[in-house]
Records
---
Amino acid sequence: MKINIIGGGPAGMYFAILMKQADGAHDITIHERNGPDDTFGWGVVFSGKTLANLRAADEASHAEITREFEAWDNVDVVKDVEKISIHGNSFSGIARIRLLKILQRRCEALGIIISFRSEVNDIESLRGDGDLLVGADGVNSTLRHAFAEKFQPSLSTRPNKYIWYGTNHLFHGLTLTFRENGAGVFAAHSYKFDKTTSTFIVECDPQTWSNAEFASMNDQETLEYVAAVFAPDLKGQSLLSNNSKWINFVLVKNGNWHFDNVVLLGDALHTAHFSIGSGTKLAMEDAIALKECFDATPKVSIALGEFARKRKPVIEDYQAAAYESMVWFENARDYMHLSPIELAYSLMKRSGRVDDEELRKRDPKFVREYFAMKSVKV
Ligand SMILES: Cc1cc2nc3c(=O)[nH]c(=O)nc-3n(C[C@H](O)[C@H](O)[C@H](O)COP(=O)(O)OP(=O)(O)OC[C@H]3O[C@@H](n4cnc5c(N)ncnc54)[C@H](O)[C@@H]3O)c2cc1C
C-alpha cells in the first residue's frame, strides 16, 4: 500500500511505524513542515495503561521510551502552605523532543521516508498519489481545513488562557498548585519529565488575565510576573521559556473522521484538555487503533469505517471526562474557599470518572482523612 502522512508528530510517526512493521512492503512517506530538531513544548505524560498499550504495539520504541522516562504515582495538590498527596496514580513523563527523536530513529530503521521541511499545500495531488492519505497535522490541520465540508469539524475556543513553561525545579508527581493575588486565581500543572526539568503549565480565567494586564506585557515581563506568583513553589528556580505565549485551548471534534481514502488522526481529529492527560497519548493510541483496523482488512474504505466505528466511542468518552475537568479549571475561583484536603478531593473527582470506591483503592489513607475531616462515617 502507498501511504502519505501529513505531519511528523507522535500520531503520524507512530502510525507509520506500526504499519511498516506489520508489512515491510508498504511504501510510506511522512511530510513534515519542520526540521528534525525543531520542536515545542516540554514533557509529555503517559499513564501506566498507555505504556502497556505502547508495549503491545511496538516493543522496540516502548523499550526506548521507558528507558528515558521519569515515573511517579502521586498527585499533589498545593494551596496556601499545605500540600496534599494522593497516591496510587501511575504516570510517567518524557521530554517531547526525546519522544520525537525515538520515533524518528525507529522510522529511519524501518525504511520510512520522512520528508522534513516539506510543507504540504497541494493536498489534492497528494491524495491522488497513494492508496491512503493520513492527516496527522495537528490542532490547526491543513487537511481538515481543506476538506471541512467532508469532516464537518467543530472548533471551540475556550475562555481560559494558558502558557507552557519549563523549570529546573523538580516536581516529583503531577502537582496542581493554586495561588491567588489581587488579579485573581492562577493554577499550575507541573511534573518532572527528566532528571533536571519539569513542565510548568499555568492557567487562569480571562478576568484574572485581564486584571493582571498581560496584554501590555512582553514575554520577559510575563515570565517574571508568573514566576513571582509561584515563587513559593519554584524554590528559587526561574521559569524557562520556549517562545512560550499565552494561548486558549481549542476543543476540536469532527462530525466525520474520514472520506474516500482520507482520514484524520491525533490532534487534527480531536483534542482533550491537558488537565486530564496529554494529547500525545491519544495521538499514539489513535495510531494503534487505525493500524489494528488494517490488520483486519487491506480495503481502505472498510478499515477507515471500522476505525471511526470503534474509536469514536472511546474518544467521546475521553473528551466528556476531559470536558468536566476543563470546566473545573475554568471555574477554579469558585473552589478557592475549600480547605486543601477538600480541594484535593474535588480535584480527584472532577472528571466524574473516579468515585469514592476507586479513590479508596488508590489511596485509602487519603479517603479516610477526608471523610474524618468531614465527620462522615465511611
Ligand atoms: C504550544 C504547545 C505546546 C505543547 N506542549 C505539550 C507538552 O509539553 N506535552 C504534551 O503532552 N502535549 C503538549 N502539547 C500538545 C501535544 O503537542 C499534542 O496533543 C500532540 O503532539 C498531538 O500529536 P499529533 O501528532 O496529533 O500532532 P502534533 O504533535 O501537533 O504534530 C503535527 C505535525 O504536523 C506538522 N504539520 C502541520 N501542518 C503541516 C503541513 N501543512 N505540512 C507539513 N507538516 C505539517 C507539524 O509541524 C507537526 O510536526 C502542546 C501543544 C501546543 C500547541
---
Amino acid sequence: MMPEWMWPAASGKEPNSPGDEDLRMIPRWSMVLAILLFAGMQYIFHVVMPHHKHEMLPLRLMMGYAWGSLVASYALLLGYVSRDVKRRGMSAGLWMLVCVVLPGGIGAVVYFMLRQPVLSRCPNCTTEIAATYHFCPQCQFQMSPVCGECHRGVKITDVFCTQCGHDLAQDGAPARLRVYGD
Ligand SMILES: [Zn+2]
Ligand SMILES: [Zn+2]
C-alpha cells in the first residue's frame, strides 16, 4: 500500500493500475467515431463499390476489414492524443490539427517524438512538476538528488558528484533521495 502522500491528491481520485489509466486515455467520442468509421468502410466496400462479382467477395472482405481497422485506429489515436496533450501541458488544438492534417499517421508519429513528459505533482503541495525539475517551484520540496556544491543533478547511487567531485554525503539530502544511509 502506498503512503497517503503519494496519491495524486489534487485530482481527488484513488490511484488506478496503469492498464486502467491507458484505457481511460481514450475518450468515448473517439470510440464511437472508430466504430462509425469501421462500419462506413464496410458500407463503401460492400454496398457502394461494385459487388456483383461473387468471386471477388474474399478480396472485398479483406479490403473492407483492412481499411476499416486503419481508419478506426486513426480515430482512437486522435482520441488518445486529445487527452494525452492535456496531462503533458501541451497545446491540444495545435497537436490535434497536426495529427489530422499530416496524412497517413505522420502527424501522430511527430507527436509521439516531440511530446513532453507527463507532468507529475509535488507530493507536498500538489503543484504541477515537469520531469526536469529538481525542486518544487512553490514549496522547495526536493524531487531528485542534486549536488550541494554545483547544484547539477546526480544519480541516487552516486557518492561523489560527477561534475565537481563534491562528497554528496555532506549535503544532508533527504534520506528518500539517497541509497546509502548514514
Ligand atoms: Zn510543492
Ligand atoms: Zn557538483
